[in-house]
Amino acid sequence: MKLDKESIIELLNQKGVEVLDLYPNQISVNIKKDNLLNHLVFLRSIGFDHLSFINAVDFIDEGEFELVYHVWSYTHKIHVLNKVRISRNNPVIPTIVNLWEQAQFYEQEIHEFFGIIFEGNKDLSPLFLENWVDIPPLRKDFDTKEFSVRLFGAEIRR
Amino acid sequence: MMDSPSYMLSKIAEKDNLTVYELFFGPNHPGMHGNFGYVLEMIGTEIVKVRPNAGHLHRGFEKLMEQKLWVQNIALVPRICVADPDPNEVAYCTAIEKILRVDIPDRAKFLRTITLEMSRLSSFLMGMGALAAAVGLYTAMNIMTADRDLILDLFEWLTGARVYHMFSIPGGVRNDLADGFVERLYKVLDHLEKRLIEYDKLLFENPIIHKRLKGLGYVSKEDAVKYGLTGPNLRASGNPYDVRVDDPYAAYPYLDVRVITQEGGDALTRAIQIRLEFEETINLIRRALKTMPEGEIRLNLGNLSALKVPKGEAYAKVESSKGEFGYYVVSDGGMKPYRVAVRGPSLPAGLLLAQKHLPKMKIDDVAAWMASLAICPPDIDK
Amino acid sequence: MVEILLVPLITAFISDIFIKNKRLVWFLFLISNGYILYKLYSLYGKWDLTYILNTDYQIFGAKLSLGLSNNPLGWYFAFFSAVVTLVIAIFSIGFNTNSKGNVAPIWMLIIFANLGIFYAADWITFFMMWELMGWTSFFAITNGNTKALDGAKYYLALSLLGGSSMLIAILLLGAYTKTFIIITSAYRLIQLFNLAEGVFTTILLLFIMAFFIKSAIFPFYMWPSKVYAVGPEDYIAFMSSVMIKYGIYPMAIFIVPVIGNLQLPKIFNAGNWMQYFIGYLGALSAVVGTLLAMFQTDMKKLFAYSSVANMGYILLGFASMSIVGFEGSLFHVVNHIVLKAAIFLSLAAVVYRTGESEMHKLGGLVYKMPITFLTFLFGIIAAAGIPPLNGFGSKWMIIQALMEKKMVVLVISMVFASTGAFMYLFRALVSIFLGQLPERYKDVKEVPYTMSIPMIIMMGLMLLIGVVPGVVMKPLTIALDALGYKVDIATWTTLSSSFKNATIDLKIVFYMFAMGIVVAALMYLFGNKSETIPQHDNYTAGENPIEWGVDADKFNYSYSFYQPFKEMFDPLFERISIDRFFSSIGKNFEYISPTIQGLYKRGEGAVLLFSIGVLLFILGGWIL
Amino acid sequence: MEDLKANDKRSYIDNLIDFFRKRSIWMLHYCTGCGAVELPPSMTSRWDIERFGIVPMATPRQADVLLVTGYVSLKTLKRIIKIYEQMPEPKWVLAFGSCTVNGGIYWDSYNTITNLAEYIPVDITVSGCMPRPEAVIDALQTLMEMIQSGEGGAYKKYKENYEYYKKNQDRVLRKTAPILGSSETESIYQEKEGNYET
Amino acid sequence: MIAAIRVFGYSLFAIFIGLLFMGIGRKIIARIQLRLGPPFYQAFLDVGKLFARKSITHNFVMDLGMIMSLAGLLSTMLFVPVAGHMAIKTSSNLILIIYLMAIGHLGMAMAAAASGNPNATIGVSRALTMMLGYEIPFFTVMLGLIIFNGTSSLELIAQSQAGGILNWNMVKFPLGFLAAEIALQAIMGEKPFDAMVAPAEIASGPMVELGGKYLGLAFLTHAVSIFVETGIMVNLFMGGASNVFTFVLKQFEIYLITILIEAVFPRFRIEQAVKFLWTVPMSIAVVQLAIILL
Fold this sequence. Notes:
The complex is a heteropentamer of chains A (158), B (382), C (624), D (198) and E (294).
Chain A: H1 5-14, E1 18-23, E2 26-31, H2 36-45, E3 50-59, E4 64-72, E5 79-87, E6 92-94, H3 103-114, E7 117-119, H4 144-152
Chain C: H1 3-17, H2 22-43, E1 50-59, E2 62-69, H3 72-95, H4 104-119, H5 123-142, H6 149-177, H7 182-195, H8 197-214, H9 223-228, H10 233-241, H11 248-260, H12 273-294, H13 299-320, H14 323-354, H15 370-383, H16 392-404, H17 408-433, H18 449-467, H19 470-483, E3 494-496, E4 503-505, H20 506-526, E5 530-532, H21 563-575, H22 578-592, H23 594-602, H24 604-623
Helix pairs in contact in C: 1-2, 1-4, 2-3, 3-4, 3-10, 3-14, 3-18, 3-19, 4-5, 5-6, 5-24, 6-7, 6-8, 6-22, 7-8, 7-11, 8-11, 10-14, 11-13, 12-13, 12-17, 13-14, 13-16, 13-17, 14-15, 14-16, 14-18, 14-19, 15-17, 15-18
Chain D: H1 2-8, H2 12-23, E1 26-30, H3 39-43, E2 55-57, E3 65-68, H4 74-86, E4 92-96, H5 99-102, E5 124-126, H6 133-149, H7 154-160, H8 162-173, H9 183-192
Parallel strand pairs in D: 1-2, 1-3, 3-4, 4-5
Helix pairs in contact in D: 2-6
C-alpha cells in the first residue's frame, strides 16, 4: 500500500520525531541517539526497506558529528534522511548491522574516516587505509593539503 | 548425511587448518576489474572464506571536494567511476540545483538525459566485454570495446573529452549539440542494434556461457532489496525498481522509461538483463532525440566560479548503469561545499555479497561473478 | 634346494633369540637375504630339481604328498622378489635404527613362506605356506603399534576368508581330480570341464576368490589402503611390491592355463566369458583403484590404491589369453615389484625424516631430500609408464595384446587407468616434494647413506629394465619355454607384438630421449643466465603474504587436489559400500577370536611363541 | 662524441637482442586509476597495439613493461613496488597521466603520492589527464625507439640508487617509526580507541 | 653422428614450423577480432626476446622440468613420420607416441609446481584432469583405426591411405575424425578447453612463475606440441603426404580448424570440459568404433 509524503510525515509526527519536508520525494528527520534503533525499526516496518547508505558530517563549530542514515522506500517512493547528532568528544552510537547487513561496511568506513565508534559492531578494522597514524582524515580539523605537502612533497599551487 | 560438500569442507577446515590455503585474487590479477582484491581462503578449488581487500583506489574524494569551489568539483566527480562517469556529474549538479531550488531548462534536461544514456551504453558495452573476457571470449570483448569507441567519439564531439566529459554544470549543460550530431548518433545506434545480433550469437546465446553462468551467485528477490542491491542487479532478481521511474530526474518524467525485470537472479540472468537494458537504452535515446525541445541550455546563475549555494542539504540520486549513484551535499552557504558524501552502487555487491556468495564458489567463477554484478571498485573506494 | 627354505627359517629363529640386539638382527636379515639371492641365482636353469615327501595318506582319494619343485615361473617370481628384498634389507638397517618394534624375525618367516609359495609343488604345501604368510603378516603389520590393529584385523579377516575358500577349493580339487600336484591338477581340471561343469566352475571361482583377495583385485580392493597406512614403512615396501603378487603367481601357473585351454564359445569374436570375467574384474580394479588413489590424502593409502590398479593391469594382460598379454603381465609383475619398492622406499625416507604421511602437511622437501626426490620421480615416471624407464614396456605389451584381441572396453579402461595414474602420481610428487617448504621442516636432512644407496640402486634398476628389458624378458622367455609356451617376443632391447610392424626398440627410445635432452639443454644454455630466488618470493597479485598471516603452510595447494574431478564421482562413491561390509567383518572379528586379541596384548614373547607353534604344526604336518 | 662511442661498443648481437626486445614488448598492466579505462581501446580492435607485438601479460614474471595507469594511492604504491621488484630485468616503467608526475587533480590528497619517480624509476611518462590511446601508443613507440638505441635503462638506476628509493618508499609507507602527526594528537587517539595502530 | 645431425635438424624444423603456426594463428585470430594483428613472425621475436632476458628460477626442479618437457616433446616428434621421413628409422608406434607425449606434460607440470605458487598448482591439476578427459575419446578413435588397419604403427596407417582423397580416413571415418578433432582442441589446450591457463581465473596457471628463458622453453614446447599433434592428425586422417611441403600444408589445415574454434568460444569450467569430452566426442567415437568392429 503506497503512502504519500504527507501521511508519512503524519505517521512520523505521531511517533514524536521532528520531520522536515525538503524536496519532492525527500524528507529529513531529526532523531535522538537513543531513539535511533527504534526509529529505524519503525521505518523499516512501514516499508522503508532500502538503506541507501550512511554518512557522517563533521560540524566542528558546534562540536558535533551528524550521522545521516539514508533510507528509501520502494513502495512509497520516499527518501528519508535520518539525522542523528552526537558529541564530537564522545562519538559513540549504536550499530544498525542487525537491521541492514551492508551497514557493516558503511560503519567501518565512517569509523575509519571520522573515528566514530559503533557500539555492538564487532569488526571496525580499517577498510581503506593502511598504517594510518594521523587523525581520521575526513574530520574538519585534518588538513589534507598540509599533509600532502609534508609527506609527499606536493607543491602548493595558487 | 545431508551435508552439502561445502559444509563438509568447512568442517574439514576446522579440524585441520593445514588443509586450507590462501589465494590472492587481486589487486593485480588479470581476472580482477579495477584495483581491488579478495584474499580467498580455499580448500581444493573451493572458497571457504573471503576477506575483501578494498581501498587501493582511495583518493579521499570527499575530503578533496571540501577544498574546492562548487564548480571546480565538476572536474572531480566523474573520476569516481571511470566506466560510467556522467551519472556523477548529473547527480552532483542535481543536488546543487535542489539546494538552490532552481529548475533547469527542458532542453538541458534532455541533453543530460542523452549523455546519461550514452554513458550507460558505453558502460554496458564495457561490462559485457568484461564478462566475455572473464570467461575467455576475447573476440566479443574486442568487438564490444571497439563499438564502445563509437560512443566515445560522439562524446568527444559533444564535450571535447572521450571519458571525463564535465558536461553538466549547475544550472544546465555546457554546450548544445553540434550540427549533424543527431544524425551521427542515429547511425551509431543503428549500428549497435545490428551488432546486438552478433553479440547474441557470440555471447548471450552461447551454450557454454549458459552452462557456466546458470545458477551462479543467485540472489533472491527479497535478498536483493535487503542487501541494498540496485540497478540491473536488483531488476534481474525480479524487482521492478528503477530510479529513473521511482524518483525521476532530468528528462525522464517526459520519457516513457520501460523497466525491464527478469526472474532468476543468477549471473546468467544478470548478463541477459544488461543485454536487454542495452537494447532498451538504444530505444530510449531515440525517443529522447525525437521529443527533445528547442530552447535554452542553461540557467544564468551568474559567475559560476563565484557560485554560492545557500545553507542546506540535499540528496540526489541517479540510475547509473551499475545502480543507484547518490550524492549527499551539505552547504554552509559558502563558496565551497561543506560536505559531499557519495553513495556508490558497488559496495553492497563488492563487499557484502562477496562474503555471502564467494564461499562455496569455485575459483573458476570469481571473475565471472564479479563481472556479472558489474562491481566497479573506484566507487567503493572513493 | 631345500636350503633356501631352511636358511630364512633358521635366521628367523636366531633373530628371535637376539631380538633385543637390533644391529645384529638386521645384519643377519641382510646376510640371509643375500644368501637366498645367491642361491636362487644358482638355481637358474635347473628346472627339474624337485624335493618330494610322499606319504600314504589319502584325502578323498587323492594321494597326499608334500613337495617343492624348481618351477621356472616360481623361480622367476622368487628371483626378482629376492633382488628387491635384498635392496629393501639394506634400507631397513638404516631405517630401523630407532624404531620401536622389531619386525625382522617375523619378516624372515614371511620370506620363508614367500619362497615356499613360489616353490610349492602341490596344493597342500602351497596352502600351508599361504596361511603362514597370512598369519605372520598380521603380526608384522601391527609390530607393537596399537593403532595398526584395526587395519591388521581387517587384513586377517580377509585372509581367513581367502584361506577357507582356497581350502575348500583344494579339497574339491583333490576329490575330483585325485591329485594335489599343481601342474597335474591343472590338466585334469580341464578335462573335468566336460564332465562336471558346475564343479569345475565352483573350484575355479573359489580359487579365483582366494587369489583375488590376496592381490587386492576388485571387489577386495580395500585392504591395502588400510594395511599400508599403518604398517612399518620398510615392511610395507616389501608387502606392496612382493607380497601382493602372491595372488598373481597361482593365477599365472594355474588359472591362466586352465582358462586358456578351454574351448568356450567366443563373444564378439574376442574372448570367452571366463576371459571377460577376469578382464572386467581387472578393468574394474584398475579404474576404481585409480579413481580412489586420486582422492586420497595419505600418501601410503594413495600408493595402496595404485597397487590395486596395477594388479588390475596384470589381470587385464591375463584376460587377453594371448602370449603377448601373458608375457606382458608377467613382465609387469617385475616392473611393479621394482617401481613400487622404489616409491615406498622414498616414502619411507620421507616418513623417517618428517614422521608425517599426510600429503597436505608436507611440501617443498625437494630442497632438503634431493635423492629421495629423484627416486620418487623415477618411481612415478616408471609407474606412469613413461618410456625411458620400466613400466612402459609391460603396459605397452598388455595394451597391444588387448587391441589385438579386440577387447575394446578393456583396453579403453586400461588407458583410462594409466592416464589417471599420471594424475595421482603427479599429485603425490607435488604435494610431498614440490611447493612451499613448511617452517617446521626447515631442519630436515637427506637420509643417511645406508638408506640413500638402496634408493640409488632402485633408480638404476628402473632405468636398466626400462632401456634393456631383456634382463627380465630373457629369463622370463626361458622360463616360459620350459613351461611349454612358444615365445618369440623380446630381444635384449626390443619388444614386439603380433601386429604388423609393431616392434619397439627401447634403446632407440632412450637415445631419442637423450637427444631430446641434449637439444633442450642446448636451448636452455643458449638463453640468458638465471637467478635463483627464495621459494616464498611468488606472484601474489602484489600482496605481501606475511601481512595477511599467510605462511608456507597456507600457501600450498595440495589438499583435495582434484576437487572438481572428485565432485563428478561423489554420487558414485557414496553407493559403493563394499568397504563397509568388510569393515564390519574386521570389527566383529575380535569377538570371533579373542585369542588373537589376547596374544597381541601379551606382547612380543607371545607372538613369538605363537609363531613357533604354528611353524611346528606346519613342519609336523609336512614330515608326517 | 661520448654518446657515439657508447653506440660503437654495441655489437651486432646487442642490436639483435634489442630488436627482439623492441618488437616484443609484454606489458603488465597495473590497473590503478583512470588510465586503465583507455587501455582496452588501445589493446583491442580499434587501435590494436598487438600489431607492434605488444600484448598484456598476466604476471610480473612474464612482463617487460609495467604500466602504472594513473594516480597511485599509498596502498597501491606498496604493491607496485613489490611487483616492480618481482619483474626480471630488463624492465621498464610507463607512468600514465599527470597524476604520476605531480599528483594531478589529486595533488593535495592525503592518500595519493605526487611523484611516482621518487619511489620507482620511471622511463616514460605519458601526458594528459587522462592520456588518449594515441598518446599511449606514442609512448610505447618512444619506448621501442629507446630500447633500440639502448637508452631505456631506468631499472639500472634503481639498482644503483637503491638507498634513495628505499628511503622514500619507507617514508611514505611508514615502515619506520611514525613521523606523521604531532605526538599529542597521536596519543589522544591512542587513548580514545585502540583501533588506530601506530 | 649423421643421426645426431638429423635429429637436430628435425628438432629445429619442428620448432620452426610450430612457431610459424603460432604466429599465423595469432594473425588469424586478430583478423577474426577485426584487428590487424601482429606480424606472422611475431612468435620468433617473442622467443628471441625471452631467451635474451634474465630469468628467475625457484629451484633446480624448474630448470629440470622445463628441459624435460621440451626433451619429451622433441623425442615424441622424432617418432612422428613427416611425409614418411623420420630422423631415425624406427617403428612409429602410436601407443609409444601417446606415452612419450606424457613426459612433456610431466616436465611442464613439475616446473610449474616447483615454483610453489598455488595458482600454478591449480593449473597443473586442471591440465592433468583435462588430460584424462581428452585421452579417452582420442584413444577410442585411434583404437578404431588400429583395429581396422591391423597395425599400431602410425607410418603404416598413413601409408594405407595412399591414393587420393577418397582413401583418407577422414573421408572413410568422418565420425572418428569429428571426435578426434574435438579431442584435439583439448589436446592443444585451446578454447573451449583452456581451463588450465585461464588468465582470468588463475593468472595463466602453470606459466604464472615462468619468465625469461623458462617461458621461452615453454613456447618452444608448445610449438613442438603443435607440430606433433597436427602431425599425428595428418598421418591418422589425411594420409600423410608425399612431400614435406604438402605435409606442412595439411598440418596447417588442421591447425586452422583449431584456431577458428578457439577464436569464437569461451572456456568451459574444468569439470564441464571433462563431462563434455566424455559425452559428446566419446559417444561419437564409440559409434565409430562400433561401426568398425561390426
